[in-house]
User: What shape does this take?
Amino acid sequence: MNQSLVHSLLRAVGLVVFGLLLLSPVLVQWPAQDLVPYLQWKLIAAVWFYMLVLSLFRSFWPGLLLLLPAALLVPQEVFYLLTYQKSTDAHALAIVAETDLNEALGYLTGIGLFLALAVVAIVLLWWYLLCSAWQGRWQWEKGLRPVIWLICIGVVASLSWNEWQYQQINKAKQRSNPEENVFVQRPLPYSYEKFHATYPLNMLIAVNEFVKQKQAVADIAESTALFKFSALQTDAPAQRQIYVLVIGETLRPDRLQLNGYNRATTPRLSGTKNLISYTNMVSPWAWTRMSVPVILSRKSATDQRYFPTETSVVAAFKEAGFSTAWLSTQSPLGVHDSSIALHASEADQVQYLNPVGYKKEGFYDDILLPAFERVLQQNQQKQLIVVHTLGSHFSYADRYPPAFDLFTPSGKGQSISMHDRSSSLLLNNAYDNSVAYTDFILFNLIKQLEQTDSISSLFYVSDHGENIFDGQCNKSGHGHNTERDYRVAALLWISELYNLQYPQKKSYAEQRREQPLMTSNVFHSLLDLAGIEYPDQKLTKSWVSPQWRPSSRILQQGLDFDLAKRDPVSAELTP
Ligand SMILES: [Zn+2]
Assistant: This one.
């Protein structure tokens, strides 16, 4: 075989391999069914996009140059897809952007070398093709590029038309301020629906979403930055102090063995000393993005605005001289998370540890334990640590490792719909397993705190409850306006040294275990627990204060939780 034939063959093979490489994030999503939408919105769309880039210039080499970033990101995209069954989105970008790189790249653990080798191989292949295109003067045939452009114009026109129609049918609700629109405006554009899993278009969409949401959060943060509580800890004890707030997810109080549930869902906490379970606490909201800000700040239960007008308990502790940290397995951005992330950003250090978020299995909450340990080891004299967990967020079976598959069958590893009543047994078992796993997480956080020998406390509260086809009720999930939506698990652990320092507060904390409490009491009680004072403090709202008074528990829609009527089957609340 003569040499030039070998060269042409090599180049042809090189081009095919490079093409397959660029398409591999789409090819690995080859579906078992629904082939037509896959071809239309993924495979053909990706091919079309690459063709468009290549056709920008008559010579091939500038197009090849432009395709390098897409080629370089292929290995991580394929890895992410195969591991988490999810394309890179704004969440993934935010994890990398928000968290220090070592933590953020935790999800690549063990395959760093493989990725590096893959990148080297890609660069070599790309360089070979680029040189070949340059030396061989590879060019488009005359007249071919306008055909690609014409098809492109046609596709864009048809997309725009569909987008317009889609917007007419799915009218987005306009909020009072532009920042809210960025997050709350749903549905997402038609193009997002169609291309969010089409590499490399998903990357462009993710960057666009990330920049837009980031900007909106920055605008809001700027508007609350000047706010001050003027909080002070006047009588600071000499010993080290550590206050921990754990924000739970979807945990019902009636599913805790501690509270009389007939399954061993809290075997560790049940044997833990100095632990108080509040059995009558209510959250005014059943959606994370609205309920968590009420826990953290003075935002009133009936305030319907998405974003806060003042800072949270994090900033108040900071004002009082505490070093503050926020550890989370939830997301740093997105419609469900940005109202919370805004308060997280008040902390001195923020770590988002889960590369996937709640939609897939991702990392379990135990990733928080070593991170918590690292924060404790910083050995600060005064610390506030907020831990935001994924707890029992659906899908329940995705929230705990196989060793915690205690109540079976749980459907772990299968895709179980939360709306399928016939899966009720599986859902309930999986839910209880996730509770048992939360017991493990909390127990270990407390154990770590105990070892610091400090004046410390850990307060745990869930953001809302859950319905799981209870009795004859057909409801599943949260946000149904039922009693089970609003009742939340809440626990307070106090160290021996705390007890010695503030025996009165401890005694009040114990006395109020069955009192009617709301998550809007948390802000006031946490500051009071730490002996932090500020000018317009309302101690009537702190259940560790002698001044505490029960008040009517008004929910987000204005209903009084205690006076509202209950539907006998679903426990749905009505006036
Ligand atoms: Zn939630």
Observations:
- The two ends are 88 Å apart (CA to CA).
- The mean pLDDT is 90.
- Residues 9-218 form one domain.
